[in-house]
Each structure stands twice: as structure tokens, then as C-alpha cells.
Amino acid sequence: MSNTFVKKPGNGIAFANKFKNHPKAHDFIETDVKIGSHSYRVKMWEKIDKNGNKFISFNVQDNVEAELERHERAMEKMRESGDKEPERGIHGENELAK
Question: What is the largest CA-CA distance in the chain?
């Protein structure tokens, strides 16, 4: 019997967040849950309620939207540090990528 996990539409597997750098960061993540023609990112937090019971809280986000937000956060950090943004060409391409 094989231990290989085969993803099926609507199913996924979550891995621990090895890069958790602050207390509010997610504990687990699944980056590619496919439902129909859309792909979603699911972030999960392990929590404990007031009675001591463990539960999972989660956030589901469209993968394209999640990537755009990640890019915007990176650009904001770059601006805050004083780094110059790459120049854009007439068609919007990154001049550094040429």
C-alpha cells in the first residue's frame, strides 16, 4: 500500500507553517485547494476556547488575490525601508526583468 497522497478536487492537505515569525501568523497552510476551475489558499490557526477545547479557525482566499496581497505587503516593506521600486516600461513590464 502506498503512502502517497493524491489530491482530488475539493480536498487538500495542510502542512505546519515552518516560517511562523509572529504569534498571529497561521499555524497550518494548504496553498492549492481546487474547487471547480478556481484555486484557493487556506490558512488555519489552532486555538483553544475558554473551556480548554482545541479547535481550528481558518481563512479561505482566492490564490490570485492572496498572491497580489503578498506582493503588496512586500512592496510596502520595500518602500518603508527606502528601497526604490523597479521602473515600469510602457507596457507595465519590470525593466529589471529584461
Answer: 59
Q: Hey, which residues does 35 pair with through a beta bridge?
A: 38
The string of pLDDT tens digits covering residues 2-30 is 677 777 777 888 889 888 888 888 898 88
pLDDT, average across residues 33-53: 90
| CA 51 and chain centroid, separation | 30
Distance CA 43, CA 26 (A): 6
Residues with Cβ < 8 Å from 32, sequence gap 6 or more?
7, 12, 39, 40, 41, 63
**More confident site: 83 or 7:** 7
The enclosing H or E element of 80 equals helix 63-80
What ranges do the domains of the chain cover?
A: 15-83
Q: Helices in 1-98 by DSSP H: which ranges?
A: 63-80
